[in-house]
Each structure stands twice: as structure tokens, then as C-alpha cells.
Amino acid sequence: MSEDFRQEVSEQNRIRLDKLRALEQDGMSPYRLTRFDQTHRSAQILENFAALEGAEVTVAGRMMSRRVMGKASFAHLLDRDGQIQVYVRMDDVGDGAYERFKDCDLGDVIGVRGTVFRTRLGEVSVHAREVTLLTKCLHPLPEKFHGLKDTDLRYRQRYLDMIVNPDVRKTFVARSKIIKAIREYLDSNGFLEVDTPVLGTLEIGAAARPFVTHHNALDIDMFLRIETELHLKRLIVGGLERVYEVGRIFRNEGMDTRHNPEFTTVELYQAFTDYRGIMDLIEDLFKYVAMRVLGTTDVPYQGEIIHMGGAWARMSMKEAVRRFTGIDFDGWSSDADARAACRALGLEPGKDFTRGECLSLLFEERAEEHLIQPTFIYDHPIEISPLAKRKPDDPDFTERFELFITASEFANAFSELNDPIDQRRRFEKQVAQKRAQGANASVDEDFVTSLEYGMPPTGGIGFGVDRLVMLLTDSASIRDVLLFPTMKPKD
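and the corresponding C-alpha cells:
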């Protein structure tokens, strides 16, 4: 920001502060009112002009523009739904009130009582009878000088972003509608919404790194949750049968256009079904949400049209790798063969990678990028699926799928492992790997105990709400769909 611009803003702030002091000295503080009753918002008036023409209304909002023409002025007020023009004339509101209105600044919040009419140029407006300054804006709005283009500033000061960039507010209205539609669908299909703990006492063996905090009263370290899965499956054991949670998740990892340290997921579990039943459910849910929010299943995203209607593609991981690389998993006779196949395509598998881990690497690096339209990739190797059931006819693989759209993972689902002995073995292996990396991971003994009481056959899935919002609002970055994304503090 140039020094000249800083001085200009500083001068604008000084002028506004002087106006505030003058108002306070006159006993007219713009912060004195505790309530202002609106009868209508902008959209109601614009959409129902025929019924409201000539009617008295009371509107309120932030003044975004003003045109003074002697003893009459036009201004635009921004409220929750959009903008409405107001016409203010000295003869109608009085000399003093008109002068005070002219002394208002862009960004001030004002209330207007008047009648609905249409101007000679055809714009639906409110003809003011009374104008009230409700709140003083002490900073000039960015748009007046240079617009709010700086993405860092937009994310740090989301309130300004929403004031001067109307599409931003539409994104977050859509986000709310998306979450509401998810709940509608699940509630109508017999699922019960629940809440599970955010703080836990164990660093469990999952791959993600947790955030650590300290509980002073208990004098113990605690961990912010990296998933809601294990608590939700305890509820299946307890007999709830269909449960879900819209939950905030915390992972102490990197940030990019698709990752933020805190984010929102939906996890759901359904007793007496498997991963194919969950596959049908999530396809139907996503289609429902798209239609409910957008009114179509053809979704524009970053220059592509994502076709969410019709039957979604379904491929095993082996099939996907064979289709996009020509490599056949079943042609490998050993782990060494698999590692050699990866290296032949320019990849670097770990020195101890198994066939399953090599298959996963090939998929991630050579197949995933092709999955633009909705595609289920099912039957994942056992090595990368510690909570999924083995396939009865092929124990090297699990009944697991991931959903891919726009070459990104949107959901992860299993036929849930309910064998407590197998679960303990997998937890112990995972914990050993985490401890070798320096983590203080532990087996969740209580969860294993819950399985020992018997969890019925169950299908479960987790999907990222933020990525679904990105898709349905055509947003390129996760920061565009989080009201307050994580930011490094300014120096």
C-alpha cells in the first residue's frame, strides 16, 4: 500500500471521527439506539412492487452510494438480501434531518421510513419520510478507493469482503442451504443427528497429526479430534442403528487450496448395510443437495460441467490403475515386481512398499487426475484401510470406496470392521508405525471393548462439507467457502 494511499485513508478516518464527536456533542450519538424495526427488506420490495406500491415501509442498511442534487438526493442501501434505492427530499424530512443525511458517509448504517414508488427512470425505490443514522462507519469502504481484490485482506477481514463483494455473501448463504439440505435428506431417511466429543485423551493411530492442548484441572494433555468415526460407531453398538454428525475436525497439517487445519465433515453410519448400500445413499444424497440448492444436477465448476445426474461411474482401484496406466495388479507376483512397475512410471515407492501400497501409489499419481466426473473407486488394499472389512473372497482388499469429483476425493466409506480381534491387530500395527515416527499414539481400548460387545454389520462414510460447498458454488479454494479461514498472524 502506497504512503499516499495510507495518508488519504488516515485523513478520511480523521474526518469521520470529527463527525462522530460532533454528533455526540449534540446528543445524537449514532450508537445510542438499541433497536430499529424493519418492516421489509430490499428483495421483498423489489419482488412485490405491484402489491407494495404506495405502501409505507421501513428499511435499513449500509449506505453504498449517494447522489446529492441540491434539495434532493438518491442513495442505495445494502441489506441482507441486496440493495434498494431511497429518495430523500428536504421538504419531506426537514431541513435539519436532510443536512444530517448529507453529512453521512458511505458505509454508515441508516434506517428509512417512507413509501414505495417507481422513479421516472423505472427504478423501484423508497420515498423517505424519515431518515435515522443508526451506526457510524469510521473507515472508508475499500471499494471507494481500490476495491477489495487482495485475497489475504479478504480472508482476514471477511466482514469487508462481504460488504463490497456481493457474490461472497451468496456463497455463504449457499453453504448454509447445503448443510440444511444434507440434514433434510438424512433426517428424512431415518438418521439421528448426534454430537460427539471434540476433546479426547488419546492420540489415536490414524494417519493425521492432532492438535494438542492441556486440561488444567485434570493436568493432562488432550487432543482435538481428527475424526468423529470411533464415537459414532460406539453409538451403533449401543443400538441407534443410523447416526450422523456434522462436525468440526482439526488436523495439524499443511494448508493449500483444498486443506485447512479446521474443517467440517459429515460422518454417518448405518447398521445392517455394507459399502455398496452406502454408495447408493451418498450418490442419492449429493443429487438431492444439488437439486435442492441449485435446481439442477449439471453443476458448473471451473470451466467444466459436472454431471451429477444419471448413474455415477464405479471402478475398482485395480480397474482404474489398469485403465489409466495399462498396469495389471494381478500380473505382479511379488512386492518387488510392484515396486519395479512404479519406478518404470517415474514414481518412487518406499523400499518396503507392498503390492497394495504400490497400487495405491499408482492410483494417486497416475489415475486420480482423470476422475473429473463423479466416480466411485472401490476395493482398496488392506494396507491403507485399517478400519474397513476385508473382502471375503479376496482378503488382500477391503470393502472400501472413495468418491472422486473434479479429480479430488470427496468421500471415504467402508463396510465397517466389526471383528474386535482383527481391529486390535490393525490398531497395534498402526500405532507401531506412528510411534516409529515419534508420535505418542495409543490403541483406543474402549473402542475395541465396544466391538467386543458386538457391532452389527455396518456401512459408514465421511465426506467433506467444504469441498461440496466449493463444488456447488464454483469456488477454487477452500478459503473461499470458510467464513474465517486459518491465517498466519500479521507481523
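(Above: one complete record from the training split.) The chain has 17 helices and 19 strands.
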